Amino acid sequence: MEPDVTFIKDDCVNKKYRMRWRAGVSGLMCLFPVHAENPPNAEVTVAEYEAEPLLDRTKFYLHGVEAGLRYALAINKMNRLPVIYCQPEQLALSSKDLVMLVDNEIAISPDLAVDKDVPVAVVLLRALQRAYPSAPR
């Protein structure tokens, strides 16, 4: 009776592919910068926004905030709760629209000229409330 060598052979093949996979992942990790001194914050403040308003990460952040607000708005409508603003359902806001709304809100709000630590998410909400006010109940 001969020993079963298929298990040993398969294990060696798996090790070879695991080593390649680990080397590939390690190589990919080197491509991305590590933020050891200044870790990225999930929240963007007015000061950070004013420094770099047109960065892709800022635009993605604004889209994420706007999507979350839209979901909250839809849930409030379904549950017949008060809505915080009334954006038309057929209106899709682009990155340019969101940046314009935030820029206008910063320009017309005197409190944002003083307090630069306000999250841009709050500024966007205020801008959407100003652009698409909800009907009084």
Outline type? globular
Taken together, the total number of domains comes to: 2
* Fraction of residues in helix: 55-70%
Give start-end ranges of low-pLDDT stretches: 7-13, 23-39
- Total E-strand runs: 0
Number of helices: 6
Structural class from helices and strands? mainly alpha
Strand content: under 5%
Rg from alpha-carbon coordinates: 25 Å
- Distance from N terminus to C terminus (CA atoms, Å) equals 86 Å
Order of helical and strand elements: HHHHHH
* Largest sheet report: none
Average pLDDT number: 75
Structure report:
With 137 residues, this protein is mainly alpha-helical. The protein has 2 domains: 1-32; 46-131, no CATH class. 63% of the residues lie in helices and 0% in strands. α4 (95-108) packs across α6. It is globular and about 40 Å long. The chain starts with 5 loop residues before the first helix and ends in a 6-residue tail after the last helix. Residues 7-13 and 23-39 have low confidence and may be disordered.
Outline of this structure?
The chain is mostly helical and 137 residues long. Helices cover 63% and strands 0% of the residues. It has 2 domains: 1-32; 46-131, no CATH class.
Secondary-structure blueprint of this entry?
Elements: H1 6-31, H2 46-51, H3 56-78, H4 95-108, H5 110-114, H6 120-131
Name some characteristics of this structure.
mainly alpha, 6 helices
